[in-house]
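Page 42, continued from yesterday. The earlier attempt failed because a stray header line got pasted into the input along with the sequence. Redoing it now with the clean sequence only.
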Amino acid sequence: MKYKKFEKINITDRTWPNNEIDRAPIWCSVDLRDGNQSLIKPMTLEKKVRFFKLLVEIGFKEIEVGFPSASEVEYEFTRYLIDNDLIPDDVTIQILTQAREHLIKKSAEALQGAKNVIVHLYNSTSTNQREIVFKKEPKEIIDIAIQGVAWVKEYFDGFDGNVGFEYSPESFTQTELPFASEICNAVVDAWDPQGDEKVILNLPATVESSTPNIYADQIEWMIRNIKRRDQVLVSLHAHNDRGTAIAATELALMAGADRVEGTLLGNGERTGNVDIVTVGLNMYTQGVDPKLDFSDVDKIVKVVESANEISTSVRHPYVGYLVYTAFSGSHQDAIKKGMDFQQGKEEWRVPYLPIDPKDVGRDYEAIIRINSQSGKGGVSYILNTNYGYKIPKPMEPYVGKVIQQKSDKVDGILSEQQIVEVFEQEFVNRRDYYCISNFKISLDDSHSSVEGEFCVGDDKHFQQVNAGGIIDAVCHGFKQLGVEFKVVEYFEHALSHGSDAKAAAYFAIVMNDKTYYGVGVGDNISYASLNALVSVLNIAKAG
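This time it went through. Structure tokens are written below.
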């Protein structure tokens, strides 16, 4: 076999499957380092500064700003943040460095003047790295890490700000667990945290190599085998080679991890880092405050896309352009009923929408969009929500069919404006064959009368018709001209409010054993009703 199956972790009493995520972890953004180094065209200083300000605005308290000893651009950016006092007092900047003396020395120079820093030291520990790349024995790998700790202590001795320490056994998930715990414990002892100080042990899935449950097992195993657990923060840094970085991170948090490193929208080398926006909003939908502000996801997408020059998928969880949009008829109908049910209720219970779009800065306009796959409920929702038409339920299939036929012709999505235009053209105030012109309506307590020219095609007939109501009068007027039909349904409502308020009326008639629907709009309900009846007669005439 070309590929070897990843071995399971021998934990018979694992606890993480029964745990829940009940609080936010410590978050650390690595967009400006891990995300930046993955770009074909790395960020400019201006883009990095804008990105840094976004991260601060969202609420990150730990931000890895770069690898200042590896690149002059990274060094200059770190200095720019410090020299221009852009780092809030409650934000800690983090830098990455290999366990090499000149790199650690340059890192210390880059950070001078910062109030709170984390020095993130790493060296490769996996079997493949040891045997293929470095050709070193396990003890030699441990010596590299310990020497790195010593250099960090030396070059940050007397540093004016607060210095935290983080260690990553790179390619942790492909490192034998006994060796991973041995090197991590040796590093913690070498740093020797005092008092309330905690060392960050970052355990990265540098290359995602297994199912998420195995990463959780690895984290639980490590937590059980860290000798100074109360002086350690266990950190996660999942990549997405298998497409399960989010699940791996969530299960690893259930296994007891304290901290998560990742990027906004999941940018990173190869298939990317874990997407902190998705992980955080997953928590939010379960009633857990992520302690990060995702109330304007469109702004996040705008800044990230501008900085990374990478487009966001329209299906990207929570932030994609179409993730709150339903095209399917059955989905639209369920969402429409859910939105109606939701009115005035606190608990969010809308089918197909796990989160209220307004919580992330979206409105409801794009929840339902119409194409050839859409149904009657979606059209009704759009006409009601955005234009005020309250289509009677029996009428919905007739309207939906007309809109779907139009969608088939254009071979795509109909805009809301196109939908209302088609609806009004086909159903509202139709006067193409039957009409009443130059009319006058008279009302008193006992009867109503309609006086005017009743038009049937090119023929005009002046009539004055008296009846118990306006609708009866109009019906009698047309029936006297040989137009036979039966009114089977009537519905009316205010279409708008205020001094220029209009009314809408809906009629269903049976003519020649077929049912037809029409709509009328007018300055008051009387005129709306008259227009609706005339409209449905024209629709019936057109067949």
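Notes: The chain has 17 helices and 14 strands.
Reminder to self: strip header lines before submitting.
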